[in-house]
Amino acid sequence: MELRTLRYFVAVAEELHFGRAAVRLHMSQPPLSRAIKRLETEAGAALFDRSPTGVTLTAVGAVLLDEARTLLDQADRLRVRVAAAAGVATITLGILGDSADPGATRLADAYRRRHPQVEVRVRETDLTDPTCGLHAGLVDVALTRGPFDGTGLTVHELRADPMGALLRADDPLARRDKLKLADLADRRWFVFPEGTDPLWQSYWNGGEPREGPVVRAVAECRQAVLWNGTVGMTLLDHEPGDGLAVVPLTDMPPSRVVAAWNEGDTNPLIRSFVRIAIAAYRG
């Protein structure tokens, strides 16, 4: 059994859907399906029960998933140890500023346990660069949020978070149980500086052109609302702070936590980082 085929199998087993697994692997679905069929032939048993809505693991598939994860982890550790012996065990991670995500904390703990010999250099960026330096060649991998221009990048979604409107606590709309974007149409919003990624800017402005104070950091977003009575977006489960309130937005797409890296980069430190990130954010 080739490691590549086992990676394909793990992707299908974790997504429980061939289409989603193909997207995750950045390949079309037919060759993925053929690879899994060949693996089932090698195993001498079906690995998945297939249905129109997706797939489920068979008992044999569950055993193989456990063993495949162990084998792939060992392969990643081998590559990392070789990199360490060669004196190249350093990875530069880009993150968005003011991030207190428990998933990121679990990831840091798990990566440190798995690769204690790897030096992780962290580059924190403000809200004007959602790729955290990837497009500029300043980092190896980014732990960030979408959407943004993914040209030349591989992007893997780790989690989707519901969104809310950030308002002053004494704003009449703050007394509502929920809001729609149309309820905020006539309000001033905080906006990012000119030149910010258009996809990123549009998302945080609810898909419409907005006017309001220019901000670069999360703290500035909160202060813009507090001092000016503007509105903006925030994660629904974030503590807004004194004088502020968050109201659920029912028609706002979720904010997606992603890992991103340069397309075609085969650095084993990045591959291991992404595998550990997927597990950490599932937890």
Mean pLDDT: 90
Radius of gyration: 21 Å
Largest sheet: 5 strands, mixed
As laid out across the biggest beta sheet, the strand order is 4-3-5-10-6
Could you tell me how far the N terminus lies from the C terminus, measured between alpha carbons in angstroms?
A: 28 Å
Total strand segments = 10
What structural class is derived from the secondary structure elements?
alpha+beta
Order of helices and strands: HHHEEHEHEEEEHHEEEH
Strand content: 15-25%
Task: Output the number of helix runs.
Answer: 8
- Low-confidence parts: none
Shape: globular
Give the helix level as a range of percent.
Answer: 25-40%
Description:
The protein is of the alpha+beta class and 283 residues long. 39% of the residues lie in helices and 21% in strands. It contains eight helices and ten strands. The strands form three sheets. Strands 4-3-5-10-6 form a five-stranded mixed beta sheet, with helices on one face. The longest helix is centred in the first third of the chain and has 27 residues, at 59-85. It is globular and about 65 Å long. It starts with a helix and ends with a helix.
